[in-house]
Write a structure and sequence with these properties.
heterodimer, A: 113 residues, 6-stranded mixed beta sheet, 10 strands, B: 111 residues, mainly beta, 5-stranded mixed beta sheet, 4-stranded antiparallel beta sheet
């Protein structure tokens, strides 16, 4: 079946602009996660959603970052007033309520110039 | 901070078994050991997980020491496609549990 998809695959934006990154999880998966990976670095947790519970936002690096998940499916990660240090690959993952494995999408490569 | 310690890099000859060690001396009783890998330019991929018994699936075997303070991931017959960064992670067994990634082991398979 279809895996986790993310769009766009690449995004180049100017410093100070806002960007929106989209994640389509695997159908039926109740948990959705956002991570980011800066060049040559490991993966850093940002936020996760589980069903109708309040999201865990403990990994968001600043108030310029926000995310929402509409209808328990698609999620959008928004970065306002982008900075060069926001340049990274943003990865989305999802998991089902009966499974502890997280399935990752291909990521969105964000470049802030 | 990540709760695991892994060598920065390793290499292995194609066709041989690749043994990747991981130390997790502070693992709690309710935490499992998970392994993921990340092939260049792709998202991480789940490999295997275990609590205290050794586990095997179509991809790999996981050997956990009796005191659970360390484990070894074994790729029985490494191929060039196994070249990746391998992450050893400890986390609670839950579908709603974020993953804290460490720096992983960069495994290179040589022909």
């Amino acid at each position: 079946g279809a895996g986790v998809s993310q769009s766009p695959s690449n995004k180049v934006t100017e410093k100070g602009k806002d960007v929106e990154l989209r994640c389509d999880p695997i159908s039926g998966h109740t948990a959705l996660y956002w991570y980011r990976q800066s060049l040559g670095q490991g993966l850093e947790f940002l936020i996760y959603f589980q069903g109708n519970s309040a999201p865990d936002k403990s990994g968001l690096p600043s108030d310029r970052f926000s995310a929402e998940r509409t209808g328990g499916s698609v999620s959008t990660l928004t970065i306002q007033r982008t900075q060069q240090e926001d340049s990274a690959v943003y990865l989305c993952a999802s998991s089902s309520s009966s499974d502890t494995e997280q399935y990752f999408g291909p990521g969105t490569r964000l470049t802030v110039t | 901070d990540a709760k695991t310690t892994q060598p920065t890099s390793m290499d292995c000859a194609e066709g041989r078994a690749a043994n990747l060690p991981c130390n997790h001396s502070t693992i709690s009783g309710n935490e499992y050991v998970y392994w993921y890998r990340q092939i260049h330019s792709q998202g991480p991929q789940y490999i295997i997980h275990g609590l205290k018994n050794n586990e095997t699936n179509e991809m790999a075997s996981l050997i956990i020491t009796e005191d659970r303070k360390s484990s070894t991931l074994i790729l029985p017959h490494a191929t060039l496609r196994d070249t990746a960064v391998y992450y050893c992670i400890v986390r609670v067994y839950s579908s709603a549990s974020k993953i804290i990634f460490g720096s992983g082991t960069r495994l290179s398979i040589r022909p």
